[in-house]
Amino acid sequence: MRLVHLVDDPGIAWGGPKGASVHVAELARAVAAQGAEVLVLVTAVHDPAPPAPAGVTVEVLPGPGKGASAAERVAATPARAAWVRDALRRWRADALYERFALHSTVGIEAAADRRIPHLAELNAPLPEEAARYRSLDDPGLAVELEGRVLAGCDAVLAVSSPLARYAADRGARRVELCPNAVDPGRFWAAAARRQPPTAVFTGRLRPWHGAATLADAWRLLGAGAPRLVVVGDGDGRDGLVAAGAEVTGAVAHDRVPALLAGAQIGVVPYPADAPTYFSPLKLFEYLAAGLAVVAADLPGVREVAGDVAVLVAPGDPAALADAVATLAADPDRRARLGAAGRATVLARHTWAQRAHRVRELAGELRLAPAAAPR
Fold first, then answer.
1. pLDDT-above-70 percentage for the chain
2. Which of 119, 140, 215, 352 could form a disulfide with 239 if both were Cys (CB 3.0 to 4.6 A apart)?
């Protein structure tokens, strides 16, 4: 199979440290490892960027990048879609796999022209998320274009059940649940019974990640709090340091497994008003590393780890503190949860399994009767 992976989001650079960049790279690597040839089209490449893995080629899309307005992106769509159509032709692509991007119909136009299956990965209700946490240029147009892609592509792969419902409600013809995942071979089991235990949080400190809830929980734990290592940086750093956390700052993703190996408890806090659609990459990595996990009870978390993690109400520092204290005092329970969590990802949540389904679904769609022109 020859697959083109389109990432027309100017905020997602190939080789970058953010979770979205990791997701793109890990899925492309896993698809290629199964014998496919993968062409990844991105708007930017991180500097410095790691070399592409075997079987993966990376090219940069022409046209506007980060900071471009909605009008500029839409005006560039015909030229960019023509360029992608040419890439699909010269790559002899069997299918197009696209990560949803704001103000972009490039993928659906190019795939329709080439008459190949178009699979779209949905990680968030992008117009809503941008309006809430950043800024949204021309919201009406963003909603219109998103609806056009949702209704027009052959299949939507949603990372959580709220997003699956969101896609179906907006006309998607075929929707599958496809949560985040992990390469368990990169992680090794932590020493769950080590005393005193260490807790860890990984990822960029953004308002919606619950840094304030985490800091409040550690203040409640007081002198008896386990060591807390925060692997990341951003808003909320000062509050965490004041609560006793050790903050590493941003680190390359390939350093994360070693840092998790030194911990026993993984925390996934969220604020009380957290959206319900998240599928946090850190959750899968904690589970793969054999950590005992304390996580906010969101649908995307419960679906993956409801029976192998301790779930607490989002934005409840007292509940978070109590769960951490209980695990800190019970090494046997930490060991049981850690082993069960790793077994769960090995059974159901590896990038290899996600890659297999992408290839399988693309093959099914190729064999399906030709659809009417989109």
1. 98
2. 215
